[in-house]
Amino acid sequence: MRQKIVNKIATFVEETTGQFTRSSQEACIHYCKAGYISLSIFLAMESLLSLSFDYLSSFDGVKIRKGLRQLEGLLAQICLSRTTTAAERRRSTAIDGVAKSSPKDLASLSEDPAFREFFKLQEGFEWNVAIRLISCLERLLGKGNNGQNDLLLVSTLDLLRGVLLIHPPSRSLFAREIYMNLLLDLLEPSSCPAVQSSAVLTLVTALLEQPSITRCFENLDGLLTVTSLFKNRGTSREVKLKLVEFLYFYLMPEIPYAGRDAANAHGGLHRSPSKASRLGSGGRERPEDAEGTKTTNEKQSLLGRYLNNVEDLVEDLKETAPFGTNFG
Q1: Sign, CA torsion 303/304/306/309
Q2: Best CA proximity match to 244, nearest among 255, 256, 236
Q3: Which of 19, 21, 72, 115 is deepest in the core (most CB within 10 A)?
Q4: 82 and 101 in contact (C-beta within 8 Å)?
C-alpha cells in the first residue's frame, strides 16, 4: 500500500514540476521514494507556486497567462483523477479525442496528501494563492478594457473561485474593504459582460457561509452596485440572470462557516486601496465592524431600498426551498 502511495506521489511530482530543472525533479522524487512524502510534495508545490507567482506579478499579459495556466495545472492535479488503466485512456480518447479527467469525491480529496499539503501552504501569507490572484486582478483592472485583458480578468476570476472553494479560510480576505471593493469595481457598467458574470459568481463564492463578509458587502453599498447594474439598460440578459441568481442567494438564511475564526490568520495583510476606495467622498463608505447574521426579512428590507417587488423573490425562495433551506 505504501509503495502505491509513493508511486502516486512520484507521478504527481513529475507532472507538476515539468517547468523546472532535472535536478529539482530528481530531488523531489528522491525524497518521495525515500519515504519523505510530505517534504517531496512541499518541494514540488513550493517550486511551482514560486514560478507561478513570479509570472502573475508581471505586467506582461503573456507571462500572466502562463502563471494562471501553471496554477490551473496544479489545482487540476490535486482535484482531478486521471483515467488509470490503458483501456480507460483509450476509451476516453476514442470518444472525445482527449484523455479526460474526472473530479475526485470530497472524501478522497480530504485524504489526499497533495491536497492536505496544498491546504497547509495556503494558511500562510507567502504561499497563499488567493492573495496573489487578487493582486493580479488589481493590476489587470488598472490596464483598462480590451479583449485580451478581459480574457485574463475572466481567467483570474475563474481560478480565484476555485481557490476559495478549495481553501474556505481565504474567503476572509474579502472582509477587508480594499478587496471587496475590487470585486465591486468589476461590476461597473463599463466592464464587459463576461467579466461581470464571472465577478458575480466570484462574489457568491466569497460570501458563501461568511456573514461578516456579507456585512462588508452591504456596508460598501454592494446592493446598490448590484441593483444598479441590474437596472442598467446596457446590461446583457445573461448578466441580469446572474444578478437575479445572486439576489436569490443573498436573501437566503445565513449559515456561518464553522472554521471562519481561522480568518484571523490573514488579519495582518495590507494593500493599497482599489480605484473605488480612492474616489474620496464620491466612493463607497468605509464599512463598520459588523458581527452576526441577518434574517431573510432583514435582508429583504435592505434590498427593498434599491429594488421593487423583493417580496416576490422571497416568496419564490420559500416555495422552492433550495438546498433544503428552512425559512421558518
Answers
A1: positive
A2: 236
A3: 115
A4: yes
DSSP letters along 120-158, please?
HHTTSSTT-HHHHHHHHHHHHHTT---HHHHHHHHHHHH
Which has the closest alpha carbon to 151: 182, 192, 181, 188? Answer: 192
Question: What one-character DSSP code corresponds to residue 68?
Answer: H
| Amino acid making up residue 33 | K
User: pTM for the complete prediction?
Assistant: 0.73
Chain segment 209-243, per-residue pLDDT in tens: 899 999 999 999 999 999 999 999 999 999 999 99
Q: How many CB atoms lie within 10 A of CB 4?
A: 8
The distance from CA 24 to its chain's CA centroid, rounded to whole angstroms, is: 29
Query: How far apart (Å, rounded) are the C-alpha atoms in residues 161 and 260?
Result: 17
Per residue in 13-57, pLDDT (tens digit) is: 555 545 444 444 454 444 444 444 455 565 667 878 888 999 999
End-to-end CA distance of the chain: 50
Residue corresponding to grid cell 509503495: 3
Residue 293: phi and psi, rounded to 5, are -110, 165
Measured CA to CA, the distance from residue 206 to residue 104 in angstroms comes to 23
With CA atoms as reference, report the closest residue to 294 among 258, 245, 250. 250
Max CA-CA distance within the chain? 65
Sign of CA dihedral 221, 226, 229, 231: negative
Per DSSP, 254 falls in state P
